[in-house]
Every structure is written in C-alpha cells, then in structure tokens.
Amino acid sequence: MQESPYDRALALAAQVRTMRDHFLDVSCGCGDRRVIALGMMARDNRVATATLAHVALRLSCLGCRTGPDEIHLCATINGMQAPIFGAGVVWTMPLLTRERRPSYHLRHRG
Fold first, then answer.
1. Domain count of the fold of the chain
2. Does the predicted model carry a pTM greater than 0.90?
3. What domain range is 42 assigned to?
C-alpha cells in the first residue's frame, strides 16, 4: 500500500469540494461500514465548503446511531478493503480514530 500524498492536518483542514475525487470509509464497532463519495457531498453547496474535520465530527453510524469508531480518507471506492479485481488498496489515511471503547459498547453498557 502506498503512503498518502496528504498530511493528516492538511486533509482535515481541506474543504469537501477540494477533495471531491476521494472517499470516506466509515466503520463502527457495531459492524456497520459504509463508503461515502466526497464528490456526491460536494454537489450540495452547504456541505461543499465544510472542512473534512467538520464532516468527520458530524457523521454517525447508520446501524447504532452513534459516532463511528474510524473514518479513513481513501483514494478508491473500495475504502479499506482490497478490490475484487486488480491491485491492492492504493492508499488510505485515518482521519478520526476512537481510541477508547467502541461507540457501540458505550451505548449498550448494561
């Protein structure tokens, strides 16, 4: 896997419209995972000028409705997984990583 061409601080400060050729891989402790195309988000003028840090803090898991455990900026739609055909993952960079308990366990402490 190649190293990311961006610094993490630069990527977090970048606007959605400047990173529209990339994808966000969002995964949660409950097992839910999705890949979001920044190009689709850039079509909305309200979201296009938001920074990736702002977007990363506002995302929620579709499964358990809490904050995701990991958000990665990826070069391809495959995200963190290897593609079915062709080479491996081009590059990926963690934007947000929850270091404590996964969010799913925070919700269901019991």
1. 1
2. no
3. 8-96
